[in-house]
Predict the structure.
Amino acid sequence: MNDKKGIIIAGGAVGIIAVLLVYFGNPANMGFCIACFIRDIAGGIGMHRAEVVQYIRPEVIGLVLGAFLLSLKNKEFQTKGGSSPFTRFVLGIVVMIGALIFLGCPLRMVLRIAGGDLNALVGLAGFVAGIYVGVIFLNKGFNLKRSYNITKIEGYIFPVVNVGALVLLLLAPAFIFFSEKGPGSMHAPLWMSLAAGLIVGALAQKTRMCTVGGTRDMILFKDMYLLSGFIAIIVFSFIGNLAFGYFKLGFADQPIAHTDGLWNFLGMAIVGWGSVLLGGCPLRQLILSGEGNTDSVITVMGLLVGAAIAHNFGLASSAAGVTANGKVAALICFVFLGLISYLNSEDLVKKGSQSLSKVNVE
C-alpha cells in the first residue's frame, strides 16, 4: 500500500466507515474526531466534569491497537523516544485547545466539509495557513532534536493502557462517567466502534496517513501521496452523506459547530502550526503511539490534559460560539508556538547569535 492507489483506497475506507458510524449512533459529522473523542475520554475518566462529553471512546482504543498489532506483524514496531518530551506535551495541550475552539480535529474538519458544513472550509483555510507558517520554520532548521531507541517495554505500555481503558468501558465501574445527553451519549455500538478503530488504525499505520503531512509535503516537495488520502476521505464521505441524506450545505445550524469565522480560522491555524512542529496530526500521533513512539505518547497525554484544561477553564467552544477565555487562550497559544518555533530553529538562533555578537564587538 505504499503507492498512491493504496492511500486512496484507505482514505475511501475511512470516509465510508465514518459515515457508517454516524448512521449507527455517533454524532453527526463525527464518525471520527480524534480531539473530540480524546475529550470524551478525559471526561469519562473524570478529568473534567462537562456532563455532555463523557465517554471512553472505543474508536481511539481501536486506532492504537490496530496500529500496534499491524506494526508487530510487519516488524515495524520500534520503541523510541526522548525528543523534547515536555515541549511535545505542551504542544499537545496547545493543539487540543485550538481544536476545541474550532470544535474538531483535522479529520473531523474533513468530515464536516463532506457533510456540507461551510464553517469547516474556513477552518481548512486556517489549517493550511498554520501549516504554511510551520513549514517556514522547518525551512529555517526547526527540529525538536533526535529521539533514541529505548527498551521495548516502554513501547508496550501505551497499548496495554488502552486495553485497560477497554476493560473499564466494559465493566463500567461507578468511578467512570457516561454522558446521559449530548454528544457523549451518542455513539455506535461498542464492538462496532472498536472494530472501526482497529480497521482504520491498521490502514493509517500501513499508509502513514496524516492530514497535516499531506499539506506539508505538498508545500515542501510537491508530493501528492498523503494529500491523496486526505482528498479521498472527503470524496467518499461526501458520497456516503448523500446516500444517507446527511448532507446539508450551509453555515447555519450545522451539528456541533459554530459560525464564528475568525475563530474557526484561528483555531485550526493553531492546530496546523502545532501539528507541523510535532511532526503529525492528532490521528498520526495515535498511530505512532501504537507503533512504539513514546514521543507521540507524550503528545497524546498532552492532548488528554489539554481537553481537561479546555473544559475546566471554559476554553472550549460550543454551538453558541467561542468563549472569552477561549479567545485569550488562543492568543497565548500563538505566542507559545512562535517562541517554540523560533527557539528550536537552528538557522534563526544562529543568525540571532551572530547579530548579537556583532553588536557586542561594535
Summary: Residues 4-361 form one domain. The chain is about 70% helix and 0% strand. The mean pLDDT is 96.
